[in-house]
Amino acid sequence: YRFVDAHPEIELRIAASLKLVDFNIDEVDVALRFGEGNYPGHYSEPLFDELALPLISPTLLERFGGTFGAAELAQVTLLHDDSVNFLKKYVGWPSWMEQHGITNIDPTKGPRFNHADHGLDAAVDGAGIVLGRLSLAMRDIRSGRLVAPFDSYVKASAGFHFVTPHQSLDIPRIATFKNWLMQEAQTETQEVAEFLATKRSR
User: Fold this and answer.
1) Over 36-72, what HEC string results?
2) Strands across the sheet with 152-155, in order?
3) Cβ-contact 53, 153 below 8 angstroms
4) Which residues pair with 112 in a beta bridge?
5) Which of 23, 69, 78, 197 could lock 110 by a disulfide, CB 3.0 to 4.6 Å apart?
6) Angle 116-124/134-143 helices, nearest 10 degrees?
7) For the whole model, what pTM was predicted?
8) Tens of pLDDT along 60-80?
């Protein structure tokens, strides 16, 4: 809506799908793809780093007295974001627990979601704890619907990319959208950096 307000002369149509669009046959000018950025024959630019950390609802956290560690993690349902499991190497509970030396919890158990936002919604509702990607979770964090009980995060091997055919960059409306989107991404990156100021990367 911010883009529409800033550029009312450009008609914006959004189509959300897990299907990889074909610029040759689909009526699409630009795609926002989640992956490693390897899209032969197309212009691709990353929007921001993809960082993930455990997120839980404040209500569920309070059931543990407001403190949360490995012992409490063993008592909570793990929520899984399966939207990234097409990657050869992706951040999930198994890799997060391995990096943190947690061996007494089965990292594969718990409900699985093929849309990342569904996992976040389940966490907001108190269904468990999710390894949330900050690119999608910041709105819930800002509003206080989710909090981060651990002090560390991990960087994923993939992220969101702006993708379009090379020749499309010369089209004014696409260039305008790209420039606006990159500015939005910079704002988001700064907000995430401020949120993580007291966290530590692993």
Assistant:
1) CCCCCCEEEEECCCCEEEEEECHHHHHCCCCCCCHHH
2) 112-113, 78-81, 129-133, 51-55, 152-155, 200-201
3) yes
4) 80
5) 78
6) 20
7) 0.85
8) 999 999 889 999 999 999 999
